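task queued by scheduler; priority normal; single chain, no ligands, no partner chains; default sampling; output format set to structure tokens
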Amino acid sequence: MKKCIILHLSIFSAMVNRIDSTDKARDLIHTLEAQHGALMFYQAGGCCEGTQPQCFEKGGYFPRMNDAMIGLVEGYEFWVDRDLFEYWKHAHFTLDVLEGFGPGGFSLETPLGKTFKVHYRLFTDKELKELSPIKRSE
């Protein structure tokens, strides 16, 4: 039994994350967490908020059917619009923070004069074979 557990954990730890964050993003997340409690992120495919990631209180936004949860940032789910995910499924996301206001004002960091931003890079062929699984909303 121990061998199975160890093997399972080593396989899981070898998976490639689809999202990471910068120190600035992690610091802002902790600030927002202290003010608002549990959080969640959603990155839409356009409209009034563009494609900037939005931070909400957990449960403050409901992902649409078949949207993709690509991973956790500081323990909080990061959801991506289903159509946007299809476009960016071969890319690694890095959550960062910029000074100033983003394209809208729905995200929790807006009153602090900051906006979350995602930097993208394509996965290598090796990384594509080892990607962590996504979760789809139902």
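post-processing summary
- Helices lie at 2-13, 23-36, 82-88, 125-129.
- The chain has one domain: 17-136.
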